[in-house]
Amino acid sequence: CVLDVRSSLLAFSFPLAGVHRQVLFTTVGWFAGYFLAKRTQYVHAKKDREMFEYVRHHPEDFKTAGKKRIGELLEDFIPIR
């Protein structure tokens, strides 16, 4: 009788089968995503730093244009009928 109850309880363990793999893959995926995101941020920060340093050393290549009014930037509005 005890063996029948035990075997019936063990027979219903299939919903728990594979949970360890799901936990493992979730953990591995989280760590991989975390480090890939950190690397991406590092690469972009390095590129930004190099570009800003170049702009700082070569200001003649990056002259700012004079300020324009909004009317000078937009085309004249001509309604079409």
TrEMBL record:
The keyword Nuclease does not apply. Its main location: mitochondrion. GO terms for cellular component: mitochondrial inner membrane. Keywords: Electron transport, Membrane, Mitochondrion, Mitochondrion inner membrane, Respiratory chain, Transmembrane, Transmembrane helix, Transport. The chain crosses the membrane at residues 19-37. It is found in: Mitochondrion inner membrane. InterPro entries: NDUC2 (IPR009423). The keyword Transmembrane helix applies. One of its GO terms (biological process) is mitochondrial electron transport, NADH to ubiquinone. Signal peptide: none annotated. It is a single-pass membrane protein. Belongs to the complex I NDUFC2 subunit family. This is NDUC2 dehydrogenase.
